[in-house]
Design goal:
The complex is a heterodimer of chains A (255) and B (66). Chain A has 255 residues and is an alpha/beta fold. Chain A has eight helices and ten strands. Chain A has a single domain, classed as Aldolase class I (TIM Barrel), CATH 3.20.20. In chain A, the strands form three sheets. A five-stranded parallel beta sheet of chain A has the order 5-4-3-10-9. In chain A, strands 6-7-8 form a three-stranded parallel beta sheet. A two-stranded antiparallel ribbon of chain A has the order 1-2. The radius of gyration of chain A is 20 Å and the shape is globular. Chain A starts with a strand and ends in a 21-residue tail after the last helix. Chain B is mainly beta. Chain B has a single domain, classed as Ubiquitin-like (UB roll) (Roll), CATH 3.10.20. In chain B, a hairpin with a 2-residue loop joins strand 4 and strand 5. Chain B is globular and about 40 Å long. The chains are: A alpha/beta (255), B mainly beta (66). Chains A and B meet through strand 4 and helix 2 of A and strand 7 of B. Strand 4 of chain A pairs antiparallel with strand 7 of chain B.
Chain lengths: 255, 66
Amino acid sequence: MDRLVIGGRELKSRLFIGSGKFADERIIGDIVAQTGVEVVTVALRRVSLSGDGENILHCIPKECVLLPNTSGARTAEEAIRIARLARAAGCGNWVKIEVISDNKYLLPDNNETIKATRVLAEEGFVVLPYMHPDLYAAKELERAGAAAVMPLGAPIGTNRGLKTKEIVRILIEECSVPVIVDAGIGKPSEAAEAMEMGAAACLVNTAIATAGDPLVMARAFSQAVEAGRLAYLAQPGETTEYARASSPLTGFLGS
Amino acid sequence: MRATVNGVPVELPGATPLLAFLAERKLDPAVVVIEYNGQILHRDRWPDTCISDGDTLEILSFVGGG
């Protein structure tokens, strides 16, 4: 039985989705219904005082695990503040730590992320830190109590794919917590590639939300993640330099 | 009196019950979380809380995000 357990919850779907950028957020319910996605990220923002604000929670089925992120945080202290507010909002104790002060590439600050993870794990949060792929930082996040580590494939929202493949492969090999590829994955084939390497899951937002047909793209991602996982479990055969016949070359026509 | 709500100065006629303020702004208490003078204000204290002169509030809710 191939199980993924995070924070004591067993997850059947290894595709996590973000809820940002959808032209119509009501489609999230259809995505969950058709793909079995169980983890959905959300963000926390000031309400509009004119009372005309959205409420994303109405669009996310109750059975989902809500994964609030700490987007907007530039330091560990700000991330901790946002995480505590998110938990006070009554949506569970999972949190995606995201600490970013680089406005051009939105690359995460691993040092601040480690500090925030240590404090929040101690407070009983299930901490999933978004990180720049780095082995030492990943091991430090493990020691800090992270429930998983989430290295980026490429900068947020770029749909550029698994640019960090070699280092993510090393993290998968060396980490004892699940490695979830988060950010940058643009196509289902790239998600499948991450899963074939042994990633525990993929978190996808932009590639689904901005697709011409987000629902069909979510289904494609769901199947790709599943196919990639199966391929990983099946243990691919070795690659070789020269051809090796799949059919017998002797015993017929001229032999 | 003046309070600051979500970074914006807000003029109020006097000490205002928090729940009345939310209702007047058509903000659903069920979907917001509030930081009151820098501290998370737990839901069970909302009925007893009044916004007073000089107070700072952050009223937040969940939005789409990745």
